[in-house]
Amino acid sequence: MKDLRIAVYGAGAMGTVLGALLTKGGLPVDLITRNETHVAGMRANGAIIVCEADGTEFTQTVNALFPHEMTGKYDVIFLMTKQRCNEEILTGLLPHLKADGVVCTTQNGLPEESVAKIVGFHRTYGAATSYGATFLGGGRVALTSKIEAMRMEVGGYKNDGAKTDLLVEILSYAGKAIGNEAFVKATDNLEGARWSKLAVNAAFSGLSVLTGLTFGEVAKRRKSRKLALGILRECMAVAKAQGVTLAKMQGHDMEKLLGGNTPFRKLIAYMVLPFAMKSHKKLVSGMLKDVQNGRCCEIDFVDGIVVETGEKAGVETPLCRKAVEIVHGIEEGVYKISYQNVDLFD
Questions:
Q1: How much of the chain is helix, strand and coil, in % rounded to 5?
Q2: Taking the CB of residue 91, how many other CB atoms lie within 10 A of it?
Q3: Domain of 332, in residue numbers
Q4: Are 227 and 293 in contact (CB under 8 A)?
Q5: What is the rounded CA–CA span in Å between residue 319 and residue 22?
Q6: Residue 251 vs residues 151, 256, 276: alpha-carbon distances, Å
Q7: Quick one: which of 124, 131, 135, 112 has its CA closest to 33?
Q8: Do 35 and 136 belong together in one domain?
């Protein structure tokens, strides 16, 4: 196992956490990013992981590289960049991927198709990732989910899944590093895992961007909680129309927990939602950080892909559509980040 060449490409917040945990667990991993100050910080002081939800912190010596410093070929590349640059990035990574090597994308939304178009379906794997992190810079990142709640669900994309067990074994080193035996599991329903994660992201990441709130605050406040539930249900409806069976999240059946159209079921869902988000209540959307830093975010790959897929399936998604509209409005200076943006859904 330790003879494998493994890279985390896109060592921002999420990627730095994963790369540091794999290294802490005993696997040699290259953490690759274009961010000069982040590479300099990691080389000088190690990767510093501030576990905000648990009130702890650790530092891990890592091998941080710039993309142009990559040499040779890798067995596994975990792709943890933004989706909008997939074609350019993956074309550049092809010379560094072994003939039997694989790319495992942990990106948000439904990224596997764009990956497979470049590296081939037989070399494309995906991981639905349930933990959050915030980039602090200079080698520091904040883990905003509880360590015990961190999860990764891995499977092949339109292939035989021959490398799934290998990916699970690799990622288990990260789980061992933090004492989380449930950190990773294999799935033969990658699409279901993706849609379950997408539903949460579309609801909470989108609303986090336009309100500036944490996931916990979105779930706590009355109007944003109702909007989050509405977006979750839009995602469930689109997934169902696609013939997708949603995977369980944190061991819970999302449709049973948060679905149903009777007044009683809606009330139960409304009451349960803050508890369902408890382990990730300090999470803020990475898209929010992008917008705050003057960059365009990935709303088109989150709420936007739900709208796009819903149109093809004949399912209306007015809340997701409005979320996309408002976030783009914020990017363009039409709106400011504010809780008052929830009133724009009326």
A1: 50, 20, 30
A2: 11
A3: 192-345
A4: no
A5: 38
A6: 11, 12, 11
A7: 135
A8: yes
Q: Quick one: 39 and 86 in the same domain? A: yes
Whether residue 267 sits in one domain with residue 176: no
Count of Cβ atoms closer than 10 Å to residue 139 Cβ: 23
Whether 1 maps to a domain, the answer reads: no
* 338 C-beta neighbours (distance < 10 Å), count: 12
Helix (H) or strand (E) holding 318: helix 318-331
Handedness of CA 177, 125, 235, 322 (dihedral sign): positive
Q: Is 310 domain-assigned?
A: yes
Q: Are 133 and 260 within one domain?
A: no
Entry pTM: 0.89
Q: What are 276-305's pLDDT values in tens digits?
A: 767 677 777 888 888 998 888 999 999 999
Question: Do both 167 and 134 map to the same domain?
Answer: yes
Helix 112-119 vs helix 86-93: crossing angle, to nearest 10: 40
Q: What is the pLDDT of residues 55-101, one digit of tens each?
A: 999 999 999 999 999 999 999 999 999 998 999 999 999 999 999 99
Residues 97 and 139 in one domain: yes
Alpha-carbon gap, residue 273 to 219, rounded angstroms = 6
Which residues, at least 6 apart from 228, have a Cβ–Cβ distance to it below 8 Å?
Answer: 203, 204, 207, 218, 219, 273
Report how far residue 149's alpha carbon sits from residue 50's, in angstroms, rounded to the nearest whole number. Answer: 16
| Domain edge (last residue) among 146, 169, 188 | 188
- Cα 200 to Cα 249: distance, rounded to the nearest angstrom: 10
